[in-house]
Amino acid sequence: MGEYDEIILGGGWAGLLYADMKLYEHNHKIAVIEKDSDYNKGGLLRSEIIDGLTFDTGGPHLLFSRDASIISKIVELLGDNVSKRERNNYVLYDNKFIPYPFENGIYKLDPELRVNFIKGILERMMFMSRNREWKPNNFMEWITGFFGDYMAREYLIPYNKKIWKRPLESMAADWVFTPGRLPFPDLENMIKSAAGIPNVGYKEQSYFYYPKKGGIQSLYDSLYEKVTKRGLNLLFGKDVRNIEVDGRGRYIINNEITANSVISTIPLPELLLSIEDSEESHQLANKFDYNGVIIVGVAISSGTPNQTSIYIPDPKVIFHRYTWMSSLLPSIDPSKSNLIAEVTVPKGEIVDVNKVTSTVVRDLANIGVISDEKEVIFTKAWFNKYGYPVYTLNHNEVRERAMKILTAYGIKSIGRWGSWHYWNTDMVYKAILNMNTAGVK
Ligand SMILES: Cc1cc2nc3c(=O)[nH]c(=O)nc-3n(C[C@H](O)[C@H](O)[C@H](O)COP(=O)(O)OP(=O)(O)OC[C@H]3O[C@@H](n4cnc5c(N)ncnc54)[C@H](O)[C@@H]3O)c2cc1C
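Above: query sequence and flavin-adenine dinucleotide SMILES. Below: predicted holo structure tokens.
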């Protein structure tokens, strides 16, 4: 039986970041317990290289942040293996590639369409200036309330229905709505768009960092190398299923590993069920809603366009976004390219990966990304059970109840799934850094 001062559950980005910070404490014996094998390590930050083409199997991971200090810490981990790239994202609408974010890319549309979109947003801006206390009650109200009916109907509702796969009225607005902060594009950009003049949207997202080689896995691998060099034990292939507390207040995990303290990055509902196998904890665990995501990789026998990610609101197309991996990591053979398309799957739904893959290929041909299916060299798909946490209307209450139980057991839960927040690598990093400076022991 292994004995440790501290055990970290889950060896993805959050687990290793936390370990990295704790390893500065001397004489502190820590281990990470990870369900996947050493070979499949990385959590969502996994990549596979097939015939010289790199695929991020947990979705495309572009590194950017509003917080310059956090992004520089992330980039620092990559050492020389990083490049700064311009983002060339588009929304495919009306058979045109409209620069992303859509509200800034409207200048590409025909003048009559520009008027429809901009009129809708301006009407809402005027409404807001008269009704400063207005607050959306749900995600749907946020969309229509801020962007107007036309933008909502043509782009935001079909796109969000595709990614979330549930009524948008059944989702909360507080994760996108910050009181006092309106998501409107600035007026000058709007006027430029209306006049057909190009402009750039959110500045912090117009550039991103990405590893020069190895895909996003190399970010994880750099951190892995750093923590293992400093002596971290990673126990792979161990699925946390049971946590008990003995008479001396020590934690016993899966009846084999003991520790004085436990910090978790595994999905909150799984953690709850490991601690308490009661009717009540099953009910609470069930209240956490999420989508899985299938990442379909497609290798193609033609070159790469000057594009990064393309967002697809069209409900007839199965994927909500595709990303040219070969624009992130240029292919050694420029006559070949590869992309990944993302298809979400609601919690508990049966996944037919082969059917999804053939539909993705068919739809790529339908929207003209490939001229016909013969252009496809090979495909491979990866299913990630946990892709997107869903902000249900009662998500704050559900999270709080779960955290209360965990506090009673003295367990802290962090990371995307441990906090149950739609967080990128930067927000996960920031939250861990903040808890550490707040003196978490
Ligand atoms: C489609 C998609 C696109 C994204 N794009 C970006 C992007 O462009 N930029 C960006 O910065 N971020 C992006 N992210 C977010 C980023 O992937 C996450 O913020 C980050 O990887 C979260 O790390 P984590 O350690 O919290 O979770 P995870 O990576 O999920 O790690 C959790 C770990 O716990 C393990 N585990 C789970 N259950 C158990 C158990 N019972 N016992 C033991 N181990 C267990 C898992 O195997 C895993 O290794 C994206 C995410 C997705 C899904």
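Residues 46 and 144 are 36 Å apart (CA to CA).
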